[in-house]
Amino acid sequence: MRLQLGFARLSDIPRLAELLGFLFRQEKDFKADPRKQATGLRLILREPRRGRIFTVRYGGAAIGMVSLLFIISTAEGGPVVWLEDFVLDPAWRGKGIGARLLDYAIAYARRKGIKRITLLTDRKNVRAARLYLRRGFQSSDMIPLRLFLKKR
Q1: Beta-bridge partner residues of 83
Q2: Domain residues of the chain, as ranges?
Q3: 2 by DSSP, 3-state: which?
Q4: 84, 104, 131, 151 — which has fewest CB within 10 A?
Q5: pLDDT tier for residue 149 given thresholds of 50, 70 and 90
Q6: Residue 110 confidence (pLDDT)
């Protein structure tokens, strides 16, 4: 069987929420909550103008995902994306599959005329940071700050 890269579907939501669980268990700032993840995924998938979710599949099942959310940058004078989530099932890591999925999402952004991709990565996730740097991402002097408007 071959790997397939493409857009996520509404029917993928349970599996994508499971994948996000892997991601949020390794990130100190977030907690996995499958209901919240399913709600967020549904919002994106039902309104493609807000963003796109890409999957890599093996045997029809999603084994990884990356989501791009669309915004306008006054600094860039046009559309940019926020890379919100990027996760590969732990059983499939270390095989170059995540790099292929990331490259697929970057190629999509280029075709759509996106001017910049911004992301956050966990400080301790050295492997992910290396992957991003190899793909041309650069460190920034900006620091992330968050204001949560609802009790978590």
Answers
A1: 68, 119
A2: 3-134
A3: coil
A4: 151
A5: very high
A6: 98
Q: Would you state the structure tokens that stand for residue 18, as one six-digit string?
A: 């499971």
Give the H/E segment covering residue 63: strand 61-73
d(CA 125, CA 27): 9
Return the SS3 of 125.
coil
Helix (H, G, I), strand (E, B) or coil at 151: coil
State how far the Cα of 99 lies from the Cα of 10, in Å rounded to an integer: 24
Tokens describing residue 44: 């994106």
**17 pLDDT higher than 80:** yes
Ordered strands of the 117-119 beta sheet: 3-7, 51-58, 61-73, 78-88, 117-119
Fold category of 3-134 in CATH: Aminopeptidase (3.40.630)
Statement: residue 152 has pLDDT above 70: no
Compute how many other C-beta atoms are within 10 angstroms of the C-beta atom of residue 30: 15
| Residue 96 neighbours by CB distance under 10 Å | 9
Q: How far apart are alpha carbons 47 and 120 in whole angstroms?
A: 23
What pLDDT, in 10s, does the model give residues 60-90? Answer: 999 999 999 999 999 999 999 999 999 999 9
How far apart CA 20 and CA 79 sit, in angstroms, is 26
